[in-house]
Specification:
By secondary structure, this protein is α+β, with helices and mostly antiparallel strands. The protein has a single domain, classed as Cell Division Protein Zipa, Chain: A (2-Layer Sandwich). The protein has four helices and ten strands; from the N terminus they run E-E-E-H-E-E-E-E-H-E-E-H-E-H. A hairpin with a 6-residue loop joins strand 8 and strand 9. Helix 2 crosses helix 4. The chain starts with a strand and ends with a helix.
Length: about 140
Amino acid sequence: MNFDIWMTAFRDGNVAWIPMESILERFVPHISEAEDDWYPLRFGQEQASGGLSLHPRDDCCVPGLSVERPPEDLAFWQIIAGILRDFPCVLYWPSAIKTFCMGKAELLRHLPEDFVESCGTPVVSTDAAYIRDWIGAHS
């Protein structure tokens, strides 16, 4: 995919902070030569063309993540789906329509009003293939 995706955690209308290690450990088998807060990713036979970006505060917690040029490989999307399932995160991307994805419908009440107004109607899913295909069809 030739664009970026972002995930942000929310709780009670505010950004929520999650342990960076809880995110990073999911990607470890696919990281090649980490540099500061940048982690080049390699899935399957694909060359590392994009990467994971995490920006921790002093206590090593992050508000989410971004991925430059996410791969098509289903293993990548299984990691993303797992994060949506396990953390109060939303996934968003440059879209032709106003939409975003979240793992649980009850997360909607935790989102800031302006987020929903600007990003539109959410899709609720933790199915990796569905998420990948939905983003591919709406980017």
